[in-house]
Every structure is written in C-alpha cells, then in structure tokens.
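Why does residue order matter? Because the sequence determines the fold. Keep that principle in mind as you read this record.
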Amino acid sequence: MDAATPPDRDRAVDALRAFAVLGVVLGHWLVTALVADGGGLGTSSPLQHLPVLAPVSWLFQTLAVFFLVGGHVATRSHATAQANGTPYRRWLRSRLARLCKPVAALLALWTVTTTALLVSGTDLATVHTLVKLALSPLWFLVVFAALTAATPLVARLNPLWPLAVVLHVDLLRFGFGAPAGIGWVNLAAGWLVPYTLGAAWTRGELDRPRAGWVLLIGGTAATAVLVGFAGYPAAMVGVPGAAVSNLDPPTLAAVTFGLAQCGLALLLRERLRRTMRRPLAWAAVAFVNLSAMTIFLWHQTALMATTATGLLLGRLPGLHTPPDHFGWVGDRLLWLPVFALALAVCWAAFHTYERPGPGHRPRKRPGRPRAARTRTLAHTRVAPTGVVIPSRVVRTRRSSDRATPTEARRV
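Structure:
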C-alpha cells in the first residue's frame, strides 16, 4: 500500500477520516446499551445514569472532523473536475456511487430481518429499537450526500454564515419559544459549518497554525460558556430521556465543539503526515479508508448481533444489564473485542459492495482518431504492476503505415 500510494497524496487527510470513522464506532459501542427487560430489548445509555461520564462523548463524537475532511476533498475534487472539463453530473455521480451499493445491501438485509422478526411474533417495541439503531447511520449519509451535491454552491461560502444561522435558530428555539421543529434547520446549517471549513482548507486559508489555534481556543471557550451558563447538555451525543439533545438536531454547542475539534485536527496535520510515512501505520489507515462505508454502516448491526446471540446464554453483564453503575463500564470494555470480531464478519460478508466488482471497467472516453491512440501508446509503457508510467518518446508513423519490429516492441 505504501509503494502504491502517489507521493503527492496528503496522507493526513486519510488519517483524519479514519480517526473520525473509528471515533463514531467506538463511541456508539461505549454509550449504546440494549437492555433485556422481560421478552424485549430497550435502548439505554450510561450517560443517562452516570452524567459524570459526559467527557467520554467529547472524545468519540468526531462527526465534525469527518465533515471537515469531506468538504476539503469534495471541493478539491470538484475544482479538478472543472479544470478537466468533467460535467457536474458525471462528477457527482462518481462521488455518490460509492454510497449506493453499501446502503442498498444494508437496507436489503434489514428488510428481510424485520420481516422475519415480525412474522415470528417479536415485540413491536423491540423491532422498532433494533431497526432504528441499524438504520441510524443513514441520516448522516443523507446530509453528507446533500452537502456534496451542493459543493459548487457552498465552495466559497464563509463558515460564519451557517454558524449565524445555527445561532439564530437556537435563539428562536430556546430564547423565544419557537416550535421545536425549527431546530431541524440546523441539521443542514450545523454540519455546513465544518464542511465549508474544509472548503476554506482547500483554498489555502487554513494553512497557517494560527487558524487552528483560533478554532481550537475559540470553539472550546464558546462550548464551555454554553454548557456552563446557557444550559446546554454536557454530553455531545444523544442521551435517552434527555429534554435536549446536542445532536438531534445539532445545537450551537455541538457546532462550537466541532469548531474546536476541527482546529485540533488542523494543528495535527504535520504530525500526522510524518506518522503516515511509516508503512505499517499507513497500511492501517488506508485499510480503514477503503472500508469506511462498510465499517460505518455495519457497526451497529455488529453490536446488535452480539447482543442477540448473547441472549442465548442469559442476561450477560455489560451486554444486557442496565448501564447504571461504573461496573457496567468495565464490563462493556471487555465486550469491545467481541463487537470488533462481529464487525469483521460483517466486513467479510459485505465489503465487496463498497468497491467495484471484478468485472468493473472505467467509463470509456469518447473515441479518438486511431493515430492519436497510437501516439498515446507510443509515449507510455506498462510496468509489471499495471501502473502506466512515462517512457522514452518514439517516432510514430501514420496509422496506415506499418511499424518496424523494433518500434512495435517499444509500443
């Protein structure tokens, strides 16, 4: 993997994306509990019973970093497509193609699973809990796909504009008693803030360390004030039974917290680039990036599969018991390797939906004259690994002429 990576690739971008995906996975595994109560399963969270654990959510709620990287990569890709004359529709189709097949596989499996559960007489509340958890990652993909499609419109948008929208929406919700439904405006505006920061990164506006420090210190201070004096929840994830969630929909506190995370990510870029020069570290990050959709979509299914299988052995601590004491946290940590093993099984079964199949071929470009194709081949040679690299220029004849044996061998 290290040898096959282009030397000009910014490996820090891939490292940040990998850390963001793994942070979400570990966060869900640590704060999501399926409690066996009678004949059904209900959702709970240690943050519901142990508020002192709220800082755990600060470590693993990494969605802002994912949107930062997504905005950076999408705007850079769109600029390259424009320079190459690629139409917007083709560019967008290529950006979203990787999302479709993995999502279709997840929906297909859970359609069959839901039907089987209903036919077998499973409690409706249990079915609703399981399906909601399994499909919960899709909301993120819908927002990400919408922002990707809007990239040409928001590529030069100042992040202060969507931040101002989030501020005014929260003022209306919590200060003037506006209907709670208005908060869903923040589902787009809130994640547009880190996405447009990624676009500013592409434009070179965040290259200096000062930008990272301003975001980190400013975002941290704003979040502390909002949580300490404005009544926002300390947990940066949803907590069952809480009156206000920082993520459902995003609040101003979640957005300022995301700004601090983005600032830290920007400050770590150089260190990550140095670390990613190590072949083993880069191979791990590259693997996570190649499997990001599979890991993200199936990690909740892995959690539920482990929980359902464990019920055959009875109520197991850290898996089916209420998360209302610190001992549960220690028990849950012991289950993390089992969740990872279940996720590995899901990866083995479904990772092929994330990449083109063996029969996939790139779209052919419009035909060129035969002589032009001959000149292209004459200027390149194919290495044993299949990588096309420059070669010595050889004289080409008209397509109607016959090449000499020596020239044929060079081609």
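Confidence is low (pLDDT under 50) at residues 357-411.
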